[in-house]
Amino acid sequence: MGLVEISLLLFGMMLGPFINFAIYSFAYFPRPISPWQTRPAEISVRSGAASFPIVGWLFRLEESVHFGRLFWLRPMLIECVTPLLLLFLYRYCMAGAFIPGGGLLPIGPGTFQHQFIAFALLFSLMAVATFIDFDERTIPDFVTIPGTLLGLVGAVVFPDWRLHELTIPVFPAVAGLAVPMQANSPEPWNANWNGNTGLLLALFFWSGWCFGMADRRWIRRRGMTKAVVYFFEVLKRNPSTKLIVAMWIVGLICLSVAYWRVLPAQWEALLSALFGIGLGGALVWGFRIAAAVAMRQEALGFGDVTLMAMIGSFFGWQVVWVAFFLAPFFGMLFVLIVWAITRDNSLPFGPYLCAATVYCMLDWNGLWETFSIFFFPPEFILILLPALLLLMGALLWMIQRLKQIVAKPHAK
Questions:
Q1: What's the pLDDT tens digit per position in 258-282?
Q2: What are the structural domain ranges in the chain?
Q3: pTM, whole model, 2 decimals?
Q4: CA angle at residue 355 from 352 to 358, to 5 degrees?
Q5: Who's near 4: CB < 8 A, 6+ residues apart?
């Protein structure tokens, strides 16, 4: 084991406690469980050893009376796994495992390290989102908004940190090139997006994401006119609106400057990240609306929308779409087991979205080889998306009706 790997293990031992701190601090209902938080008043004394990574939790067993039995087990396991996970990711990336095989590798200096940074950042953010969702059935914006901004900044700083694909060779005897995924994959990059069209798309996706972050209330009980009045009045009164508007304006300026100043590869990566936010978020947001109409109940929280938009900012909309349709398979077994024991079917969907994303990241080469034939350029996807959502909504409605028909004899 070299110096770099030892350093990563040590860094991971510090990252684990920070993940625990974020889980208990960034939740909508914070709990002072992490030793890095302010000690609650009912705990008068706490050993200094309690702040040590991993073993520190063993010095706090008596606090179970305040936080619940075995409260220390999960955070201790997180701190045990984090260094090992970082080491695995580093070795995985440095071995070039994310690069599709059978092609030429025009890899620039630092590409493997940049890929590791992307993996480590997204894994950490998804870990925080996953455990908050397990605890509260929600994913706070305080996790996904900074994560999305990190994805956009990373796209400019490290445009090669994205997942890769093989280009179609010009001559059959020549191997394809391994190049970063982009918004038009599996088709070649759309040259029109290097011009004003690309800038307009970037500003459109950024504006849509900022609008999604706002506190939107659509109340139609007193007619459409009042609904519009209430909509803008809620936005006006919410303290977060000014912050979102300021972020939107700064983003418009930064994107305009980037359009004129950054290199072509950086612009391609940035616009692809914005496509990831837009098309990734649109799929989940659209499914959320379709499911609510068909089932007359909320099937997904808006935190799932912002979560997948964040993932899209790192690795593009194609990864989000594949992960979204694979997520039910990851959650199915666990949901059935928990429902059989507790009869609780209100389990969060965010953790399974994260699990499917992890699988997509680690096995993207094989998945993309299978699923790439189902992907079309984004302009066609925007046309197909309403039809796809309508089909999913109709399927959910039929499932809901069948459940009602089956339940009627038992109700008697």
A1: 999 999 999 999 999 999 999 998 8
A2: 96-411
A3: 0.89
A4: 150
A5: 90
